[in-house]
Design goal:
There is one protein chain. The two termini are 12 Å apart. This protein is α/β, with parallel strands linked by helices and 477 residues long. Strand 6, helix 6 and strand 7 form a beta-alpha-beta unit.
Length: 477
C-alpha cells in the first residue's frame, strides 16, 4: 500500500472546507475507461471538422494528485511549496491548493494570485533573494513573512520594509551537474554566511532557516547531500549569534517525467538519509521544498497541426541523372502552429528537447524521412526540432508532444500575433474523489495493504464511499 509503514507529513489545511466543484477547476471529469489521451483524440476530431485546427493542450489534473501522493511516499518529512513560476495556470494552482500544498512565490503578482484562492500567508514563502522594496512592503501588508535573502543589501531593505519578516538565508551549492544552474545568480557562500548572520543580528532581524537550490534537473544526487551538510553548518553557525533556526528549504529541480537519467526516487533515496543524519526528525526543524516541474511536467500534452510543408530533394550527381526521382534522398520541413515564442519557449529557456509523437501510427512498411519542425512565426530562430524521423505527412496532420507542463505556458507570448493554445483540463473520477478526501480529511493515514481507504464522496456529504486501497495504487500506476 502507498502509505504502509511510512510517516506522513502533518496535513496543512487547504483553501476551504467547502464542497469542491469541477466547474471551479474548469475541468471535465473522465468517465470510467477514458484517459487524457482520449480527450486529445476527441478534441482533434472536433477541431478537424473546420478550418481552424489550432494547437491545444490537454492537462490531466489527476496527474497532479498522483504526483502529490508519490511525493508523500518518497519524501514523507518534506512539505511541498509549489514553485508558481513553473506554471501559474489557475486550474493547476487551485488543484495544488486543494491538496494542501504551500507555494513558492517570486513576485507580488504571484503572491496576489495565490492569496486570491484563499491560501493563508503561512503557506507562502517569498523565495526570491532579490526583491523590489515596494513588493517587500506588499508582502508585509499581506502577512507573508517567510522570505529568502543572500546579501547585506537585501537585509537592509527588509529592515526598512518588513518588521515581521522571517528570513531564510539562501546558500550557494555546487550545481555544475545540473542542466539549469542557479548559484551563478543566487546564494551566499559558507564563508559569507557568518557576516550576513552577524549583520542580521545587528539589524534585529529574525533569521529562521536556510534554503538552497541545486539547480533544475540535477544529474548528481550527491549534490543534495553536500548541500544539506552545508545547511547544517550554517544552522550551527547561527547558534553562535543566538539564532535557533527552525526551517530548512531544500529547493526544487526534481524531475517531473520519466524520460530522465536520474529518476525522482533515486534522488529521494539520497535526500532522506542525509536529512535523517543532519536534521533528525526529533530536532524540531521543519523541512520544505520548492518543486515545480515535478508536479506539472507530465500532466500536459500539446497537440499541434501541420500548417505547411517543404520537400527538399537532394541534387543528383551526374552519375545518377537517369535514376528515378523516387530514389533521391528527400528531407521534409514541417511547419506547425506553435513554436519557440509560444509553448516551445522551453527549448530556449529550459534546455528542453521536444520530440514529436505521431497522432496516427504509421504503417509498418511506411517510409521514414529525416525531418525538421518549425514554428509559425517569421523568425528563423523558431525551430522546434532540427532532426527527427517522420513519414511523409500532409497539411492538417497532427503531432503530439508529451511532458509539456513545465516552463511552457508560463513564458509563452503572442509574438507575431499567434495566440497561445487553449488548455483543456480533465481528471478521472477516482482522482477527483481522492482530491476531495485530501481536501477535507488530510492525507490518507497508513492502512493495511488489504484494507479499504475511505474517500469522501463530497465535502458536504455526511456519508463516505469505501474505495479499495488499490485506488491509491492505481493513481500511482
Amino acid at each position: 500500500m502507498l502509505f504502509k509503514g511510512v510517516f506522513v507529513t502533518p496535513f496543512i489545511p487547504p483553501v476551504t472546507m467547502k464542497t469542491l466543484c469541477p466547474a471551479e477547476f474548469n475541468l471535465s471529469l473522465l468517465e470510467e475507461g477514458f484517459t487524457a489521451r482520449d480527450s486529445v483524440d476527441q478534441t482533434i476530431i472536433e477541431s478537424s471538422t473546420g478550418d481552424d485546427r489550432d494547437a491545444f493542450y490537454v492537462c490531466d489534473l489527476g496527474d497532479l494528485v498522483k504526483k502529490h501522493l508519490r511525493w508523500a511516499r518518497a519524501l514523507p518529512r518534506v512539505t511541498p511549496f509549489y514553485a508558481v513560476k513553473c506554471n501559474n495556470s489557475i486550474s493547476v494552482v487551485r488543484t495544488l491548493a486543494s491538496l494542501g500544498c504551500g507555494f513558492d512565490c517570486a513576485s507580488k503578482a504571484e503572491i496576489q494570485q495565490i492569496e486570491s484562492l484563499g491560501v493563508a500567508p503561512s503557506r507562502i514563502i517569498y523565495a526570491n533573494p532579490c526583491k523590489q522594496a515596494s513588493q517587500i512592503k506588499y508582502a508585509s501588508a499581506h502577512g507573508v513573512q517567510k522570505m529568502t535573502f543572500d546579501s547585506e543589501v537585501e537585509l537592509l531593505k527588509v529592515a526598512r520594509c518588513h518588521e515581521n519578516a522571517k528570513l531564510v538565508l539562501r546558500i550557494a551549492t555546487d550545481d555544475s551537474n545540473s542542466v539549469c544552474p542557479l548559484s551563478v545568480k543566487f546564494g551566499a557562500t559558507l564563508k559569507g554566511c557568518r557576516g550576513l548572520l552577524q549583520r542580521a543580528k545587528e539589524l534585529s532581524l529574525d533569521v529562521i532557516g536556510v534554503s538552497f537550490h541545486v539547480g533544475s534537473m540535477c544529474r548528481d544526487p550527491a549534490t543534495y547531500t553536500q548541500a544539506i551538510s552545508d545547511a547544517r553548518c550554517v544552522f550551527d553557525m547561527a547558534e553562535e549569534f543566538g539564532y535557533k533556526m527552525s526551517l530548512l528549504d531544500i529547493g526544487g529541480g526534481f524531475p517531473g517525467s520519466e524520460d530522465v537519467k536520474l529518476k525522482f526516487e533515486e534522488i529521494t533515496a539520497i535526500i532522506n538519509p542525509a536529512l535523517d543524519k543532519y536534521f533528525p526528525a526529533d530536532g524540531g526543524v521543519r523541512i520544505i521544498a520548492e518543486p515545480g516541474r515535478y508536479y506539472v511536467a507530465s500532466a500536459y500534452t500539446l497537440a499541434v497541426n501541420i500548417i505547411s510543408k517543404k520537400v527538399i530533394v537532394k541534387e543528383q550527381s551526374p552519375s545518377n541523372e537517369e535514376e528515378d526521382d523516387e530514389t533521391n534522398e528527400k528531407t521534409m520541413m514541417y511547419y506547425v502552429n506553435d513554436g519557440v515564442y509560444g509553448s516551445f519557449n522551453c527549448i530556449l529557456y529550459d534546455h528542453a528537447e521536444c520530440l514529436p509523437i505521431l497522432h496516427t501510427k504509421p504503417k509498418p512498411d511506411e517510409a521514414m524521412y529525416t525531418c525538421s519542425i518549425w514554428g509559425p512565426t517569421c523568425d528563423g530562430l523558431d525551430r522546434i526540432a532540427e532532426y527527427c524521423s517522420l513519414p511523409d505527412l500532409q497539411m492538417g496532420d497532427w503531432l503530439l508532444f508529451e511532458n509539456m507542463g513545465a516552463y511552457t505556458v508560463a513564458a509563452s507570448s503572442n509574438f507575431n500575433g499567434f495566440a497561445t493554445p487553449d488548455i483543456h483540463y480533465v481528471m478521472s473520477r477516482p482522482a477527483w474523489k481522492c482530491m476531495q478526501q485530501i481536501n477535507t480529511q488530510g492525507m490518507p493515514a497508513p492502512v493495511d495493504e488489504a484494507g479499504p481507504a475511505c474517500v469522501a464522496a463530497s465535502c458536504g456529504s455526511e456519508s463516505a464511499v469505501e474505495l479499495p486501497a488499490k485506488l491509491h495504487q492505481n493513481l500511482l500506476a
